[in-house]
Specification:
Blueprint (H helix, E strand, L loop, with lengths): L14 E4 L3 H12 L4 E4 L17 H7 L3 H7 L2 E3 L1 E5 L9 E2 H4 L7 E3 L2 H14 L3 E3 L2 E8 L6 E8 L4 E5 L2 E4 L6 H6 L2 E3 L5 E9 L12 E5 L5 E6 L4 E9 H4 L6 H9 L3 H7 L3 E9 L4 E3 L3 E2 L2 E3 L5 E2 L7 H22 L8 H22 L5 H7 L4 H9 L8 H8 L24
Parallel strand pairs: 1-2, 1-11, 2-7, 4-14, 11-20
Antiparallel strand pairs: 3-6, 4-5, 8-9, 9-10, 12-18, 13-16, 13-17, 14-15, 15-16, 18-21, 19-20
Helix pairs in contact: 1-5, 1-10, 10-11
Bound molecules: flavin-adenine dinucleotide.
Length: about 425
């Protein structure tokens, strides 16, 4: 496909995408594939570091639609065949092997270095004809003075040059920076899921043998905190600890000291890291789960973390980023064809993204409840183990989960669905320019 010259700014763009993470690049690649003129503005120079390394099996479907499923194998990312849970005394639960649940290429998923994964998606967007400008930070959206709809963005490049760009649709894919959510005060935090994460990398850590070599391990801490243990390529393991702020910072704020202290709280983590060497820096993030009050505005759509972020215990972030990018691309293409890019056109999009998020959010709430354990649930309802696995692999749209959630509610309370996220700001419908 012929690349578009980014200096041809006199030619109108159909869509501006802010942010070139998985959500932004998926939206951009699919819209460009449909022949839309797409401009992506990304503040960083790629490849750049990012957290979010463990994929869910159902990422495969969007990657396959993008023509990237085989590329994932070619790159040789670590293959992830299961998830396992480990008690503080080191007792390992029966792993959830995806291939035992269903026979499909998606049953093998991956642990990815995001530098490589995100670059692959950016290359795809470019290859499909989208123009991607790196080191170009979007400062704000531009609204039409007469009716308030979003008609473009203002950006600043690394050399300080400011530009304005115009298109009927702007996609906010700015990740946890969440540009529109921050500017419009649309962020609604999930108070129950207000955790802190500290993470770093190790070399020469123990890898489990055979099928479990690439598994994600979730290892418990007292008080429902947990470790992730993600084996990656090049002898590296990503290890993070997630818990309540008061628990983690109880006697120090130094991430290295906290990590060293917590490693002794789980026997499996302790033994797996015993021969290992810590490498690189320690990373810390708070501001955990949130969702935007609205999924769209007139002339704008929010995707991925820019729309909502859910605690990463079940590795749902990249899946939801890819899926929302895919859903948004289809909705935007239809809206452009219809000549109506008002927020109302995107209500169904918001409902779909919220449906997936809500289903994942319920199981995340259960995970953090003192009374809940997967062992308890499966013992009481062995017939629901397949459905539980469906949820854990990201098959959130394929079936109803009422019986599973009813069974969980025999053990612990679950939250009601949030009544926002799919709603739209109340403003008049707007015709596309
Ligand atoms: C501690 C932690 C652990 C996690 N672990 C996992 C995991 O194991 N598995 C998983 O699936 N998910 C995980 N996640 C979630 C995952 O990181 C995100 O869900 C995913 O990266 C979202 O993709 P995105 O495209 O929406 O945003 P991002 O990947 O954050 O991409 C957003 C892009 O927008 C750019 N940008 C931001 N602001 C601007 C601006 N103003 N102008 C231009 N560009 C801008 C950024 O530079 C960035 O490149 C984890 C998250 C955290 C915090």
């Amino acid at each position: 496909m012929k690349a578009i010259d980014p200096t041809e700014t006199d030619k109108p763009w159909d869509v501006i995408v802010i942010g070139a993470g998985p959500a932004g690049c998926t939206t951009a690649a699919l819209l460009a594939e449909k022949g839309r003129r797409v401009l992506v503005l990304e503040k960083e120079k790629f490849p750049r570091y990012h957290i979010g390394e463990s994929m869910m099996p159902f990422c495969w479907y969007t990657l396959n639609r993008l023509g990237l499923a085989e590329k994932m194998d070619e790159i040789g990312f670590t293959q992830k065949l299961s998830v396992q849970f480990v008690a503080t005394d080191g007792m390992v639960s029966r792993p959830f092997y995806f291939f035992q649940h269903y026979d499909h290429p998606s049953a093998t998923t991956w642990q990815v270095e995001r530098m490589v994964f995100d670059q692959m998606l950016m290359d795809k967007a470019r290859g499909n004809g989208a123009v991607v400008l790196e080191e170009t930070k979007v400062l704000d959206t531009i609204r039409d003075e007469s009716d308030g709809r979003i008609v473009g963005v203002r950006s600043e490049s690394r050399d300080g040059r400011q530009d304005t760009w115009f298109a009927p649709v702007t996609v906010d894919a700015t990740g946890r920076d969440a540009l529109m959510v921050s500017k419009n005060r649309w962020r609604s935090r999930d108070p129950m899921l207000n955790k802190v994460a500290i993470w770093t990398y190790y070399e020469d850590a123990v890898r489990d043998p055979g099928l479990d070599a690439g598994s994600t391990t979730v290892a418990y801490l007292p008080g429902k905190g947990w470790f992730w243990y993600i084996p990656m390529r090049d002898n590296r393991v990503s290890v993070g600890v997630v818990a309540e702020r008061d628990y983690l910072f109880r006697d120090t704020r130094d991430p290295a000291e906290i990590m060293a202290r917590e490693i002794h709280e789980n026997k499996w983590i302790e033994s797996h890291l015993a021969p290992a060497r810590q490498v690189g820096e320690y990373w810390v993030t708070g501001e955990y789960s949130y969702r935007s009050k609205y999924c769209a505005d007139d002339g704008a759509v929010l995707v991925g973390d820019a729309f909502g972020f859910l605690d990463p215990v079940f590795s749902s972030g990249v899946f939801l980023a890819l899926k929302s990018g895919e859903l948004a691309a289809d909705a935007i293409d239809e809206a452009l064809t219809a000549g109506d890019v008002s927020a109302g056109r995107f209500q169904h999009y918001g409902e779909q993204v919220c449906l997936g998020m809500e289903r994942m959010r319920k199981i995340v709430y259960a995970f953090y409840n003192e009374n809940f354990s997967f062992g308890k649930l499966v013992k009481a309802h062995p017939e629901l183990r397949p459905k539980l696995t469906d949820l854990l692999i990201g098959n959130v749209y394929g079936m109803e989960f009422d019986d599973l959630f009813a069974a969980i509610e025999e053990i612990c309370a679950l939250p009601a669905d949030l009544d926002y996220g799919m709603k739209i700001p109340e403003r008049g419908a707007v015709a596309a320019a």
